[in-house]
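The following record pairs a protein chain with its ligand, magnesium ion.
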Amino acid sequence: MPEAPSDPVAERFRRIAARPVVLDVRALGMSFRGAGGKTVQALHDVSFQVRRREFLTVVGASGCGKSTLVRILAGLAHHTAGEVLLDGRPVTGPGPDRGMVFQGYTLFPWLTVVRNVMFGLEMGDMGRDQARSEALLWLDLVGLASKAEAWPHQLSGGQRQRVAIARALAARPRILLMDEPFGALDPQTRATLQEHLLQIWQQVDVTVVFITHDIDEAVWLADRVLVLQPPDQDHPGGWLAEAVEVPLPVPRTRAMHDLPAYRAVRERIERLIRPPRPPAAERLPVFKMTAAGDEVL
Ligand SMILES: Nc1ncnc2c1ncn2[C@@H]1O[C@H](COP(=O)(O)OP(=O)(O)OP(=O)(O)O)[C@@H](O)[C@H]1O
Ligand SMILES: [Mg+2]
């Protein structure tokens, strides 16, 4: 009997599972000393692995520990429990193996676009001429070679984030860490940059960890979506609710938003982030601000 044609999505996940683990997060916990000396637990017992060239997104309600997680992965903050291994080695501080793109525009305003991208290369001992020609290649990849001599203030918000991506990738990191990189952009620009990022990722051997609070962005970009839940009485600290595989083929197209598989994943994540609860008015002692008999029109 001829073999049934294999499902390309299942095949893709099998291929990813066969790749080496790049990032290994084990029982990670983080607590801060908050106002009045009170301990704030931001993360609790978070464990997951990311494999080479996987695109992982992390979603969760505001305050559930997403930025704390990415800062720990970047080595910008120390965790208080568990461990983070990159290629099997513990992360103890920032390093060139991790590229970072944050929401705030982080370009140096006193350097031209090409000098911004060259910056990390020159810090890594590359000569100026070679750094310049490599930087121009990366700018070309993000579609901004024509802006090489512009100053950051002469770029739009979306263009600045593209330069930030070029700068992060130029250092050839193992992992690209992104914390709501498109959060400040209008929806149109945001959609364009999402497409652009996926195109770039297909051409570069890099693993991506992308934080967002936008479920559509998380699903559309990712191989897998990690859902972090905020702390409650039963679970101290933001904890990992689930790692959801996105059963959509790659490359992605906007038309996939209409597929039942897309909608099912989206709804599942939505329910994990916002479990059905009684309306706030039934849980909270709210003051009634309308006179008896007033109707809501
Ligand atoms: N330096 C700090 N000191 C004390 N508490 C902190 C500190 N940084 C973060 N927290 C607390 O840790 C928790 C997680 O914060 P974090 O910034 O990681 O959330 P987030 O998921 O990124 O939220 P958002 O979606 O709003 O960006 C919050 O309760 C926050 O108040
Ligand atoms: Mg945050």
